[in-house]
Structures are given as structure tokens and as C-alpha cells.
Amino acid sequence: MRLGARIFKTGLAVTFALYAAMWLGFEVPAFGALAAFFAVQPSVHKSLTLIWDQIQANIISAVLAIIFVLAFGHEPFVVGVVVVLIISINIKLKKEAIIPLAVVTAIIIMGSPTDDFINFAANRFMLIMIGVFCAFIVNMIFLPPKHENQLYHKITDTNEQIIQWIRLILHHEVDYHTLKQDMKKIRDSVIKLENIFTLYREERSFFRKHEYSRMRKVVLFRQMLSTTKKAKEILKSLSKHDNAVNQLPEEMSQLLQLQVDYLTNYHERILLKYMGKVKPQSTEDFYEEINNGKHQLINVFMTYHSDQQIEQDDWIHFLPVIALIIEYSEELEHLDRLVDGFFTYHTEDNEVKIREREMF
Q: Which ranges does the record mark as transmembrane (predicted)?
């Protein structure tokens, strides 16, 4: 089991909220801790953008809770009606992310009210806001997320897994039962990659100079993600049309293996280049080899089709694979140019903030 930074931040925010509530003399500090738990965000940017929404949502929840308790009491069905209203209002305002905290606020205020209900509600509301602000402070100061580092290593891990399976399929050494299990893991990895990229893209720098550099890296990582997804599509297509691949003539099969090997090696070198392990401009030799291989693959494929050496059904099934390989090569060339441009221009601003993994 791995304990990430967000888990530690959540624990820290809860602890901070408990101590703050106790220090300020509140009778039930646990409510502040509960609010802190719901208010912790995965990024500094989300924390900044949601803090005002959280304050507004809590005020709305508190006002509704107070009005309904004074008008109708605190029976369970009244609490249910208020919860429905709070959810509906936040959905209407397109603030679904803060619904859990808003609902918790209403339930805490409406639970077991005393005779002096206004003071009771104000006390509970202040407790909740203490939890929200404690979570905000922790989000801003402690353990800020390193999305660039996470994104790069997640991309390289996913690429390594995809490329491994592509090579096994082309060399007819694949176990399809294991591949089917790993395909689900790869799909989940790509979804997680998209989520991390979204968090990275939403980050903001306080200095314009740093923000320009960060946006250049956002473009780079968007293309890295696009290239990884294209490799996944090739893997999916090869596994789906494996019978057609196995029926290819020997020359066509060898040429396909050679071209895909070139492309996957090229992909790995580009990612290493971004880490500084391969010199900029060092992949230029791949351009000519890949371009020649691409044209040769198309020419041989069309020749076999014209001579009717490939069955019509096999040709129809295998054509999407050829198209994906061509698209993959174009995505890689675009990514390579972006990486070269990143290290060629604005070199005083561009900085790669990726740490090597610890070796055990």
C-alpha cells in the first residue's frame, strides 16, 4: 500500500482543524475535522478556485438549515428536504464538487439543535469554516503536489507496458489471457494520466515568466499523452486483428516488425531526451529511417494487395493497423520537434523538474 502526499495532507488538515477548534474553545472539534476532510483538494489551483465556492456553499447550506429548523423543526424528513434543495442548488450553479461539504454543513447544523438555536447554528458554522480554512492552509503550504514528476513517470510506465505488449504480439510470443488482463490496467492508467494532466494544466504560477515556461511544458505533455494514446490504439488494433497479422506474408511481417521496432525505440528515446539522458537533435537519424520504412511498408502492402496475395477480408482488417502506424509515426515526429524546440529556445526559462526514482 502506497501513502501519497494527498493522504498525508488530509491527515495533517484534520489534525490542524482539531487543534484549532480545541484552542478556540469549541465543544465538538470533530465537526471541524470532518469539514477539513471534505475540503482537501488535489492541487493548489483547485484549492484557490474552490475556497470561495466552499464559503458560498456553506453560507447557503447554513441559511437553509436555519430557516427550515425554525419553520418546520428538525425532523428527519425536514433534513432530507434541505439536503435535496442543497444538491439541486449546487447542480444548478454547476458546483457539483462542493456538494458533499455543503450537505455535511446542513446536517451538522440541523442535528440536535438546542433552545438557543441561532447561537448553536453559528457555533457549528464557525466550526465548519475552521475546518475549511485549515484545509486551505495545508493545501497552500504543505506538500504541494508535483504533477509534472507524476505525469512523466506515469507516461513512461504506461508506454513501457504498451510497447512491451506490441513487441510480443508482432513476434508471436504473446499470451492473450494475460494481455486481456493487462489491457484493462492500461486503460485505467491512461484515464489516470488524463486526470493528472488536467491537474497539471490547471496549475498556475505567480510569476508570468514562469507561467510561460509552464505552458510550453503543458503543450509538450499534451503531445506525450496523445502519442501514448496512439500507441495504445495500435496495441488494441493488433490484438483485435491478431489473426490477420499472423497470416501476413513473411516479407510483410518482417517489415512490419522492423518499422514498429523503429517507432517504439524512437518513442523511448524522445522521452529520455526530455529527461536530459539523450542529447537534443540526436534523434534526427530516426527521421529518415522511419520515413523510408513508412513508404516501404505502404508500397509492399499495396503490392501484395494488387497481386491478390492478401485475402480481401485480411486486407480490410489489417488496413486500420497500417493507418494507425502511420499516425503514430507522425505523432512521434511532432513530439520530437516539440522536445527539440523546448531545449533550443527560451533555454534560460525552460527547466525540467523531474526527479529520478529511487533505486532499491
A: 12-39, 59-85, 97-113, 125-144
Task: State pLDDT tens for residues 11-31.
Answer: 888 898 899 888 988 888 888
Q: Indicate if 134 and 231 belong to the same structural domain.
A: no
Q: Name the residue with higher pLDDT: 138 or 285.
A: 138
70 and 183 housed in the same domain: no
* Total count of domains within the chain: 2
Same domain? 95 vs 154: no
Give the pLDDT confidence of 161-193 residue by residue, as tens digits.
999 998 888 887 888 788 888 889 999 999 999
Nearest to 144 by CA among 256, 48, 268: 48
Report the predicted TM-score, pTM, of the whole model to 2 decimal places.
0.71
User: Domain containing 326: what range?
Assistant: 147-344
* Domain identity same for 182 and 294: yes
Is 63 in contact with 105 (CB distance < 8 Å)? no
Residue with cell 523511448: 268
Q: For residues 57, 103, 109 and 80, what is the CA-based torsion angle, rounded to 10 degrees? A: 130
